[in-house]
Model the fold of this input.
Amino acid sequence: MTAPQTLPRYAYFNGTIVPFEQATVSVMTHALNYGTAVFGGLRGYWNEAEEQLFLFRPDDHFERLIQSASLLRMTLPHTPASLTETLRTLLQQEGYRENCYVRPLAYKASVMIGVRLHDVDDAFTMFALPFGQYVDNEEGLHVGFSAWRRVDDNAIPARGKIAGAYANSSLIKSDALLAGYDEALVLTQDGHLSESSAANVLLVRRGQLITPPVSADLLEGITRRTVLQLAQEELGLTVVERQIDRSEIYLADELLLCGTGVQIAAVTRVEHRRIGSGDMGSITRRLRDLYFDVVTGRVPRYRHWLTPVYRRETVQA
Ligand code: PMP
Done:
């Protein structure tokens, strides 16, 4: 994601919507100095036929944000429903008629020196910007194993989307890109597959869809949850959540990344080895097509995952 980004026009900041330029903090802000913030990332998908912007699973994203915040001893004065309403208002003001990305951020806002979580003021902000693809090549990524390990649950819990832990993700991502890869696979401290720098990982082997369990120091991805459900319900696949060895990845028939940013991307090469045929596999392709249909509102059965921004949805069959 190196392309210049269009800045938002507005931000939700200190309880109200303000021009984006006014949403600023002091250099002494606790979160900026110590990484004591938690964030989310969700997408809005533009459906041209319905002239509608659909938020994908906003309640689930905001629920995770609230849980991440509680790990850092923050209590947000918001519920998933109220945050979704705030986001709708913000997006109505932006007036986007294209895909966009939303970044809610809860942070330790006190202007102070002092490493701790208690007795520090919290604040919440949110903004949204137009957003297309996160990786250049969703058709076939080339990845390497990172020499960095994933942050351990007993160091910084990966289950919470904690800003400070993204120093770990940044080390992983930059070293992968600078070594010529598109992404990296990251192992836990005990050497099993965890996830990538900012996406969950799944593999297909002997017709099963296999992914590491939530106890493998990974973010409990909402796309991961979505893909596992779609794979079972729509493709009739057996889904297995279990520890994955490095060598199983080499032997996988298909390998894929999933996340809000990356969406669903095939991994076709791991270091010098081809995965499966070396092209996007058929299960990955079916999941990917289905996912795009679901997030843009073209599958009635999963419309309940979508919240329209511009008007109340009439009930669909
Ligand atoms: N793992 C990490 C480390 C991430 O940053 C993300 C992106 N939020 C994911 C996994 C995927 O999570 P989700 O599907 O909820 O976007």
User: Anything to note?
Assistant: The two ends are 38 Å apart (CA to CA). The chain has a mean pLDDT of 95.
